[in-house]
Amino acid sequence: CDQYSSLSLNLSAVLQVFDGLDALSQLTDLPKRTIRYYIQLGLVDRPVGETRAAHYLPSHLEQLLRVKKLTEARVPLERIRQVMDGQDAAPTWADARPPGSLEVKTHLHV
Q: How far is CA 53 from CA 13, 34, 43, 71, 103, in A?
């Protein structure tokens, strides 16, 4: 069972209780700095509003959980950007290389 897809609660109600970046950090178990970095890279949409008045929607939480799932599978951030932009299908778990694995590509010219 996928732990991120099993999040079946009213996300808008949760975000109203935990308003702002602190809420996303707590719900995703990601540091606020990492969330800001993902926003800067365009992996996650910018918040609604500016500075302290900024707030996040359930779609922001969904984006962060998806990015987190892909980074934990060791998918490179550039590939995640392509997936989030809809340029490419989401990678399967077979696409992700386990830690310590080695991939060798060769070209043979005859």
A: 18, 20, 21, 29, 46
pTM here is 0.64
Three-state SS for 55? Answer: strand
Residue with tokens 């970095």: 37
- Going by the DSSP 8-state scheme, the letter that residue 101 receives in this structure is -
Helix (H, G, I), strand (E, B) or coil at 14: helix
Phi, psi at residue 24, to the nearest 5°? -65, -40
- The larger pLDDT score, comparing residue 21 to residue 103, is at 21
Segment 49-68, tens digit of pLDDT: 877 778 888 889 999 999 99
Buried b vs exposed e over 24-41: b needs ≥16 C-beta within 10 Å? bbebbebeeeebeebbee
* Residues 6 or more apart whose Cβ sits within 8 Å of residue 60: 24, 44, 45, 47
Query: For residue 110, is pLDDT > 80?
Result: no
CA 85 to chain centre: 12
